[in-house]
Amino acid sequence: MVLLQGLTQLLLAAKFGERSIIGSKYLVNKTITPFVVAEGVPVKVIRQRFKNKQKLVNTLQNTNSKYDIDEILNVHRKLGFYYD
């Protein structure tokens, strides 16, 4: 599930990571990684969705995510995001 807010434009090449949030009135033209918040024209990732690692772990477990915690942490680390 991905949350897309109003008037967001999607191009055919756009792909969304699980549980990502895309702000309103933005242009999505690339792949968005899982569990992040993105906005802008063109869209870019601005932060991770959860600041607390335990909340991320709980969400992964409760939603039967196809990702494991290590995959998400590695992707977020490459983006420069770290957890408490």
Give your account of this protein's structure.
- It is built from two helices and eight strands, in the order E-E-E-E-E-E-E-E-H-H.
- It has one domain (about 5-80): Hexapeptide repeat proteins (UDP N-Acetylglucosamine Acyltransferase, domain 1).
- With about 80 residues, the chain is α/β, with parallel strands linked by helices.
- The strands form three sheets. It has a four-stranded mixed sheet, with no helix packed on it.
- The longest helix has 10 residues, at about 55-60.
- Helix content is about 25%, strand content about 25%.
Strand content: 25-35%
Find the count of extended strands (DSSP E, 2+ residues).
8
**Poorly predicted runs:** none
The shape is globular
The string of secondary-structure elements, in order, is EEEEEEEEHH
Structural class category: alpha/beta
The count of helical stretches stands at: 2
Q: What distance separates the N and C termini?
A: 25 Å
The amount of helix comes to 10-25%
Arithmetic mean pLDDT: 86
**How many domains, in number, for the residues?**
1
Q: How are strands sequenced across the largest beta sheet?
A: 1-4-7-8
Q: Class in CATH?
A: Mainly Beta
Largest sheet: 4 strands, mixed
CATH fold title: UDP N-Acetylglucosamine Acyltransferase, domain 1
Rg (C-alpha, Å): 13 Å
**CATH homology superfamily:** Hexapeptide repeat proteins
Q: What would CATH call the architecture?
A: 3 Solenoid
